[in-house]
Amino acid sequence: MKSSFRPLVLTAMAFGLAASAVAQDAPPAPAPNPEQSQPAPPVETPAPAPVEAPPATAPAAADGTPAAEVPVVPAMTPDQYINVPEYMLNIDLSTGGRIVVQLYPNVAPNHVERLKQLARAGFYDGIKFHRVIDGFMAQTGDPTATGQGGSQLPNLKAEFNVTPHLRGTLSMARAESEDSANSQFFIMLQPRFALDRRYTAFGRVISGMQYVDAIHKGEPPEVMSRMVQVSVAADNKPVPPASMLTEAVPAPVAAPAVTVDQLNAPIKQ
């Protein structure tokens, strides 16, 4: 018995030493992460991923508890908005005719809804193009025609997306803040890819671009072209009469008449 007990004791001691070594080599248990153990502080909703509808989140409760997430609305498919009148704008210009705009609710749903809301309220009717740069863009949407005005609705969060700023693209104007777009927008006269992912593109002219090209240029233009009527295509508003789709052009300044005395006057040395 004595001889058999010693190997058992030695074996137990070996296991004890091995367990001690393993315990020394194992890393300590991680301390609780304070950011995970406390409710997340309220932050502004980040810009949505390209070509997808932005995730909607409910506002935080008054007691500071985390807001419950709202189910994400899936992005619209092309057959749900391409050539669908509810997602098209008719803009009748004082330069002579109607332009038709295809809206892109798949990448900028909130901006598209804002444009439709303001159009149906008659907000854009009569508003002028106050800043038009030849070879670049034509800007409008400001009822004061100064570049400082907008609607009484709150500003929109940016919905930057992969839509390129091509000729005919409509995009929202904004101040320095990315989330300051309201009612002003611009129409591209020529491509400018430096604006991509920095301004929210929300549509493109698919008909009548010649009337956009005819908008008077200037910052501000001497004569401001205007949007006579803006409507959602689904509302079937007729084109205004031709007499409304014109604009006053200042008469050219007549050159002073040359008199006989001027012709006979001696040349001054």
Question: Can you count the beta strands?
Answer: 8
Indicate the low-confidence ranges by residue numbers. 17-72
**Whole-number average pLDDT?**
79
Q: Which class of secondary structure composition applies to the elements?
A: alpha+beta
**Biggest sheet strand line-up:** 3-4-6-5-7-2-1-8
Which sheet architecture does the biggest sheet show?
8 strands, antiparallel
Shape: elongated
Number of H- or I-type helical stretches? 5
Give the end-to-end Cα distance, rounded to a whole number of Å.
142 Å
Beta fraction: 5-15%
Radius of gyration: 33 Å
Proportion of residues in helical segments:
10-25%
Topology as a string of helices (H) and strands (E): HHEEHEEEEEHEH
Tell me briefly what this model is.
The chain is α+β, with helices and mostly antiparallel strands and 269 residues long. 19% of the residues lie in helices and 15% in strands.
Record keyword descriptors for this entry.
single chain, 269 residues, alpha+beta, eight-stranded antiparallel beta sheet, 8 strands
SSE diagram, text form:
Blueprint: H1 2-25, H2 34-37, E1 88-93, E2 98-103, H3 109-120, E3 131-133, E4 137-140, E5 169-172, E6 185-188, E7 201-207, H4 209-213, E8 227-232, H5 260-264
Antiparallel strand pairs: 1-2, 1-8, 2-7, 3-4, 4-6, 5-6, 5-7
